Description:
By secondary structure, the chain is an alpha+beta fold. Among the domains are: 51-121, no CATH class; 132-200, K homology (KH) domain (GMP Synthetase, Chain A, domain 3), CATH 3.30.300; 207-270, no CATH class; 280-336, no CATH class. The chain contains 14 helices and 12 strands. It has helices at 97-105, 123-134, 136-150, 181-191, 202-209, 220-223, 233-238, 245-248, 263-270, 315-326, 367-370, 381-390, 402-411, 426-429, and strands spanning 51-55, 61-65, 77-81, 86-93, 117-120, 155-161, 167-173, 194-199, 280-281, 286-293, 298-303, 306-314. Helix 4 (181-191) links the parallel strand 7 (167-173) and strand 8 (194-199). Helix 3 (136-150) crosses helix 4. The termini are far apart. 19% of the residues are buried. Residues 1-15, 391-397 and 417-430 have low confidence and may be disordered.
Amino acid sequence: MGCGNCSNGGSGTTPAGCKNNGNCSTSGCNKLDVFDWLTGMERTASGESEFVEVRFKNTRKEIFKNSEHLSLIVGEAVTVEAPTGHDVGMVSLTGELVKFQMKKGGISQNSRDMKKIYRKAHEGDLEVYREARAMEDDAMFKARRVVRDMSVNMKISDAEYQGDRNRVTFYYIAEERVDFRELIKVLADMFRVRIEMRQIGSRQEAGRLGGIGSCGRELCCSTWLTDFRTVSTSAARYQQLSINPMKMAGQCGKLKCCLNYELDSYMDAIKDFPDHKIKLKTKKGNAFHQKSDIFKGMMWYSYEDNFSEFIPLEVDRVKEVIALNESGKTVDDLTKYSFVEDTGPEEPKFDNVVGQEDLTRFDKPKGNQRNKKRKKPQAGGNNQQRSAQQGKATPGSNPQSKEGAQNRNKKRKPNRNKGNDKGPSQKENS
């Protein structure tokens, strides 16, 4: 990821990822990339496509008519028609799949508003395009300072230059309608180009900027999601999720779009459950619904006088009790209908008698413990203190006593010159 022409990294002039400028075979650096599953179908003899999908900065894509009958491939730079002048983009999709995309977006093939592809971008077009991309960050920061100085209630989130540098589009977010006529005049005098202001929502902003979601994957709005539907808290209630705004909100500050992904499946599964507002009437008292588990088909009820005790009931059992109540009968106690989970035979327990489950069994002992030697007892007070602590008085343990002195003399080694009758050694005589 991170090619210079998809704004996922780099300085705008050099790619930061695979160094292929968006022409890599995987196309993994392209936002809202579409897999061409019709790529194996036969095309015209010249290999040309009547309609081509062209990708611009971030998630902006448009369909153009190949009126010049150019042979184009995915990842090739082209110069296309713009409202004023021309623009430069990358081919993102060709072939028959483009017609499916047009049908999905409600674009007619005979529309007069459909723009055309002029030519394949040459080196001069690409040089101007790279210079324009390098100017976008500076233009965005300058526009933000102007908005702050003029106290306009809006947020500039992104800036996009046209391929010929004759127009710059500022994308902004505002909670209410903003009068930016004076702002456009100031920005036009500052940049000396045509200024266009385009309002987007929080989800569109997250899709343009990109990021990593709480699931660890790239944001859906920046990779494949284009249809932004309304997400309400009822979607979380149907899925038995806790209403925690910190966990349910995405990077855009709105509820996560993925809450709608499995909502239909939950809605179908919940049809088999009885209404949780119905209370179960028993002789012990009325019981109300506490929670449900759609996957296990279980419902938990509690008596009105004992909220802490949860009684698990299967869905069929709950329907049976409701049917008895509707017929005018009252059950004795819900515990007779409660579900008892079958744990199966008890598994044998194995005791760790040899320490094989210890994680530190392969650790080597420390050098101090392995080479630690027992210290020799010192003569004097240490032996006396140790004997006093043990409560045993050993003879000769006191070095000041006579017996101690005799024992020490016995243990002394004999003198090497002992038994030499000739007197002093030859060394002394010499």
